[in-house]
Amino acid sequence: MAKPMNMLVIMSDEHNKYVAGHAGHPVVTTPALDGMAASGTRFTAAYTPSPICVPARAAFATGQPVHRNACWDNAIAYRGQMKSWHHALRERGHHVASIGKLHFRGHEGDDDGFTDTILPMHITNGTGDVTMLIRDPDDIREGAARKLLKEAGPGESSYTLYDRQVAAQAQVWLRTKGKQQHEKPWVLFVSMVAPHFPLTAPPEHYYRYYERDLPRPKLATAEERPKHPYVQTFAKRSDHYRHFKSPDDLQRCLAGYFGLVSFMDENVGKILAALKEAGLSENTRVVYTSDHGDNLGTRGLWGKATMYEESAGIPMIMTGPDVPHASCGTPVTLCDLSATILDAVGAGDAAREMGLPGVSLLDLAGKPTQDRAALSEFHTYGPDGMAMIRTPRWKYVRYIGAPPQLFDMEQDPEELSDRGEDPAYADVRATMEARLRDLLDLDDADRRAKADQAAMIAHYGGEAAIRARERMAYTPPPTAR
């Protein structure tokens, strides 16, 4: 059993796991995250429970996958209806605080389970993006695509200003409440928005990359892009590259994203420095992660919503006095991080009582790779649901109404060769399908998701009323309202 200690969890939003110094990126520097990776354990096969904000964060809160918590999309958010790790810790007398983005429903009277909730960012107006309830493959979100390109460049956005406030409040909390005497270890959850678009990066970070030769996204041309039906549907709905008119358009978007990663890393560094200066480093474990990734132009796609590594893969690094310097290849998700938080502060019994499927990262760090499967699922955008499992070697993606995908992650980590319909891999697909069914009945989850979405459509006045609404590009932070 791990020694109970304080726990600091830092989460970013939409951080492509390859865009970091410790991940081998040829241009981007992330000294704070690299320092964590150099002193702790980096989980190289970490995944989001769902490659979109609201479901991913609901799964992290509850420690339960999407098909269990039923927060299917960006309009059906967590509202405290299922017990969270924060509820469990508060019940047991731990001080558990949140600073920053939560993306819960956020209605008055909703109990999020935290002792302190500081600068919370919830779904817009308590409703979120209800246009996502309509799963029409011909519903083109052109406005969001235009906005991505228009806002890419140097400067400050409402998101960078918000993140500065979140980082400042985290430093204050650590130097005040964090230093106070507590009967039990505390947990601080700090949640920032960068590098989520808009791709407006502070100038000192933007120009670090804009004036350099930047690596171009792989498989970005129309000829190179995968012909899989879902990938084509998502590309049509997002249609970002349609608005790129010159090489400089791509340069601005990449420099904006890379600059936001460096900006986020700067804020992480400030928080870690405050932890050390407050004298808390020797009794606190720290985890850095993100809710999901970003395709970042690969395969002609921007944003998330795919099961490729750039979108479904996430960074995950853990440090602490007893955390070994190691690289762990065992597949994990944010649901495992939920179980880890409870274990790390001495409340592992709560994970068992709640029936959490996750395992503690403290039990995996420094150990040989284990044969387990990480699960991710997606129930919006496309007309039908999809789910992915990742084992140490294989990634299998099942789509309702479309062919499966299969990738050998040992031989093909870039996911260039899809074996989803290759007869030579039929046995592997059958094995992976069986493992998926052990975790999830996708057909049942798809039916339940569509039923819940239909009920919400009716609640908001019907499909015609929802189609008349503006399609949201991103949620405004509380400081921008």
Short description:
With 481 residues, this protein is α/β, with parallel strands linked by helices. The protein is built from 15 helices and 16 strands. The radius of gyration is 21 Å and the shape is globular.
Describe the structure.
- The chain is α/β, with parallel strands linked by helices and 481 residues long.
- The chain is built from 15 helices and 16 strands.
- The protein has an eight-stranded mixed beta sheet, sandwiched between helices.
- α2 packs parallel to α11 (334-344) and α6 packs parallel to α9.
- The protein starts with 5 loop residues before the first strand and ends in a 14-residue tail after the last helix.
- The model has no long low-confidence stretch (mean pLDDT 95).
Write the SSE topology:
Blueprint: E1 6-13, H1 31-39, E2 41-43, E3 46-47, H2 53-62, H3 66-69, H4 85-91, E4 96-101, E5 116-121, H5 142-150, E6 153-154, H6 158-175, E7 187-195, E8 200-201, H7 203-210, H8 229-238, H9 247-277, E9 284-290, H10 309-312, E10 316-319, E11 326-328, E12 332-333, H11 334-344, H12 348-354, E13 374-378, E14 386-390, E15 394-399, E16 402-408, H13 426-439, H14 442-459, H15 463-467
